[in-house]
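Hi F.,

I've been meaning to write this up properly since the lab meeting, where we talked about keeping a consistent format for the predictions we share between groups. The idea is simple: the sequence comes first, exactly as it goes in, then the structure tokens exactly as they come out, then a line or two of notes. No screenshots and no reformatting. I'm using this chain as the first example so we have something concrete to point to.
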Amino acid sequence: MTHYARSEHPGDGTDHPSPGRRPTFTSWLRSRSDEELTALLRARPDLAQPVPADIGALANRATSRNAVLRALERLDGFTLQVLESVVALGDDRLSEPVGALPADLAHGLGSSPASTAVRDALDTAVDTLSSLALVWPDHGRWRPVQVLRELLPHPARLGPPVRVLLAALAHGTVARLADDLVPHSTASSPVETVATALSDPDRVGALVGQVDAPARRLLDSLAWGPPNGTVTDARREVALATASSPVESLIARGLLVPTGDDTLTLPREVGLFLRSGVLFREVDTTPPAFEGRAVDADTVARAAAGQAFVVLRAVEELMERWSREPAAVLRNGGLGVRDLRRAAQAMDTDDATATLYLETARAAGLLATDDRLSGEWLPTREYDLWRESPPERRWLRLVRAWLDSDRAPSLAGSQDTGGRVRNVLGPGLVRPTAPQARRDVLAELGSAEPGLAPDEDSLRARLTWRHPRRRSPLYTELVAAAVTEATALGMIGMGALAAHSRPLIADDEDASAALLAPELPQPLDYVLVQGDMTAVAPGPLVTELARELALTADVESTGGATVYRFTEASVRRALDAGRGVADLTSMLERHSRTPLPQALRYLVSDVGRRHGRLRAGTASSYLRCDEPALLTELVGDRRAADLELVALAPTVVVSGLTRAALMERLRHLGYHPVAESGDGVMRLSRPEVRRAEPDAIPAAEHTTTPVLARAAVRALRAGDEAATIARVPVELPDNGGAAARAKALTEVLERAAADERRVWIGYTDTDGRQVSRIVAPSRVDGGFLTAYDTTRDAVHRFALHRITGVAELSADTG
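Output, unedited:
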């Protein structure tokens, strides 16, 4: 940490520029250790995408507008106040660049010599800003990166320095002001005269003491910002002798400076004097305390785990149903309202929660569209692998997909700017800030004591302090949605973050799975068959049993237990899928903890006895049966008159209907026909299991792992060496054409390979960029140079015609 006792020369760790030259941000960045650069790339992952060519390129990227804006969003309220203080107390737009002294920062933040808490928090904040490369040390002062002047135009709600304000005024106006304030000044210019005078707090105090009470009240109203006021004819010509109103008396003394036709601005130096050097009225070094109710941690864990089980069962139920009866894809690629309602009914939930589950399943790669022209929503091949995973791992995959997804399910059903409705699974739901809002909410809830359920206002207040630069209506909406969605997914229970969700904040999925597994109901391999043709599953079933029951019975109700009902149609469905009567009876006897009711045995036996007695072929179609009496009964059945049946033999009847139509009609009449092929073999219609390929889901915002960050730093160091190392260019012939140049270049590289020396080369890469490389040539053949590239830390082949120059290293370190 940066302690004031040893911060007198915070720039001592930098490489020292030549005498007479001030250190630069690039030179300070170059002097950082590899560990510090690694920490920078991890804290600001956008700086490493792609890896900059050298330290100079890294410095340019780190001080670019967009990169600094992203860094500002990571700052908490106090650290942002410290950064504003650095900007306010030292301005690089002055003739002699200066930064903020540590003692000035402490005073500006209201720290007294005895206030160790503020000073310790200030040390931590400055260290954070330095590690993020937003401020850097220069001869005992802290300087902000230049772009912060633009991004924070009114730090601490103060106006610009008086030099900046005066530079925009006419020369005559500034000259009159200088003559009034310092009649016999020896300064180099009127601007310098006035700026020097107002930089002296005693002189500012004397000028403020000369104005009347109304003028002083006007100053006090602008002291804490905003520093701008509106007045008619702000650019009026005013002298000290002719000032006749409170506003004119302030303008004549430079206490207010015109910045527009009707705008006056309070200079920064005057504002600091009026505030007695304090920059903020309130300084909070810690976030506001949580307020809420206490809940038993075990109750929270059980409630959240129960909801996690509900999520798994709902997703599985819908995926199994859509395997058989997929939903249609809308023309815009989404899901229709009717299909959404059917899905919600299948999952036993409301439309909003069903939307969340569908979007999460798609983000997890379990749901996608097929490649047919009509388009249908189908489970993917990943779903089958997911079903075989342990429940806690299935839940983790869903939750991880939700955390990283940039789609906002809460926007489904709303209208875009063109009045078009945003459909579930359709376009228009992408919000790039959604993953960050979710992680912010979980991180904040994770900072609360286990079992504390914060109220909404308390959570909102802490998030406002934690990320003051992220305040926007959209962010507020995403935060509220994140709480609701995390609860629906089983991450939050009873309003508090569950224990198994806390490790996810640190991306520790193994720890999360270990905590969740004991709380989830374990899959059962048994059911309780009842006498009313139902079977009760008191918990989740193992995959094989669940699929067999779904084939043999219909789900009647869900909840703490699932109730399956056996019907004639459901038993016939199992028989159509190739199960036999003995198979069904054996399966139920094996998995039932209660004796099979006689009525259920009769049902299976009766349906099985009638199943397949009739066999349909193509005549247009025919019926074949080994029992002539059954065909005689059917031909004489008045209800079957529309089948146009004609008996060809005691065991064969033909029909004018197609086989599919004939079979469908016979089923309505209570018969159970089975299709057969031309050789008389029964063709059982097994349910078609269709799968889609997972969609290409856009990758989440990249996070730089420690390994990648260290590799990037090595590449930066090598690239920086290539850009800055002393070298002696090798002259290549200009005349003689490309062949002569290639020959000379080959000779130079071959000599370097023979002597095992490194050389510098300029190279045009495949993207057309000019890059510098330090290479150790190995061989030259076929128009290519094979060499060890220190920048890439690997052997690489370079096309000779892309090499733009070559140089000997004047001090080769090997």
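Notes:
DSSP finds 33 helices and 27 strands in the chain.
Residues 1-20, 92-97 have pLDDT under 50 and may be disordered.

If this format works for you, I'll send the rest the same way.

G.
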